Amino acid sequence: MITVLKQGTTVEQRDQLIKWFEDQGLRVHVSVGEYQTVLGLIGDTTKVDTDMLELLDIVDFVKRITEPFKNANRKFHPEDTVIDVGGAKIGGGNFAVIAGPCSVETEEQITEVARRVKAAGATMLRGGAFKPRT
Q1: Strand 37-42 with 2-5, pairing
Q2: Residue 47 carries which DSSP code?
Q3: pTM attached to this predicted model
Q4: Average pLDDT for 64-81
């Protein structure tokens, strides 16, 4: 993420903002240009409120540089995630069908549904375990 400061921002104002970023657990790379100062934020910026930052008198604009959702983003994890559930695989080109009733009412009901789900080709069974009725 970068934060571009407005022209005329004092060193003291800049340093206060840098301290605030550092207190958030970020490192700050300062780039002082002829007309603008750019603060490059290094670290997990997901909790930084960009709208709040842009309300500050000294901030010209804020821009996120990297993609969100790093734990699930292909740019950061290009390999497929494969989850094995009792031999049935999900992901990595494996197709899984999960089926079952909205709620489990009786043992007989879920056993019959399980037979039918399997016969229809599903590889996993699911059922609502707690659904109070009125």
Answers
A1: antiparallel
A2: T
A3: 0.52
A4: 78
